[in-house]
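User: Last request for today: this protein with iron/sulfur cluster, please.
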Amino acid sequence: MDIDKIRISSGSAIALELLTNRKIDTFPTTCYLMTYYSGKCTSNCSFCPQARTTQGSLDKLSRVNWPIFQFNEFLIKLKYMRPSRKFKRICIQTLNYPNNFKDIIEIITEIKKETSIPISTAIPPMNKNQLKELKIIGVERVGIALDAATEEIFEKIKGKGVKNQYSWKEQYQNLIEATKIFSNSSVSTHIIYGLGDTQEQILNLMYELKKYEILTALFAFMPIKDTKLETLKQPNIHNFRKLQLARDLIANKDRSLEDITFNSKGEIISFNINKQELMNIIDENIAFRTSGCFNCNRPYYTSTPSGPFYNYPRLLDDQEKKEIFNQLKNLVKF
Ligand code: SF4
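Assistant: Here's the final one, the structure of the complex with iron/sulfur cluster:
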């Protein structure tokens, strides 16, 4: 085995008892792993601390720290984890660098020898043969992040606007191609709200991707120190709640874009649901929690532990439900 090191999100490392001097109030339900690479990513996404032209910390992805551990030690901890903390999913991500695919394959192969926990990968675009190989070795789900909802914003933040190798057309095509290999709703993408796309543009894309059974996870932009976008503000929480509700209607309730009304700026101004339906959605405890693969809760990726929680990593309490109801009640019918 060539792999000797791996990066593990600090929350996952605490759950694995690899980090013992730290405490957290919400444990991750997924084990978040990142391939170890000694340098920066060869890509240059403007929100990312791993981008090749940033001075950002190599230990960070999003606002989370990813300390380095011995891979063997990780495998042992994973195998003998306390049943109460056992992960329900493992998610492996990689930066762009030469040989990243070889590293992913080796990591997954070794993990598969120790556990049957379902595995997701969050990867840069890969060719058909690579996707097939991931499927053959037992990857259950694959995620290819668009991050933006339109070609204009994509090119600006992770395409030619930042001298990156990605293009909207290729990335979108790659995502669709992945559904031919990973069928049965096993392909995901991420969209970040707050980069410049309107709510209407984001929902149009989600609706379009749903036709291919692609699951869209929604995140709020979070500025990270030393990245190109470090001075851009997080989006308004009320606007994010509207988008979460709209996402839930489209992704989980089979509603269409006709059930959402937008103004001329592409902002949501009303929903074709009544107050009881809104209460039921809030009580269901899905719409305002982290979206993505099943059992992915990503604690504190885009929110600080003191809040506000853009995506709740756990069940909402009664007070939190009430706050959300009050934020949205004037946008629905009586
Ligand atoms: S490809 Fe991923 S890790 Fe690399 S710069 Fe873009 S977001 Fe960051």
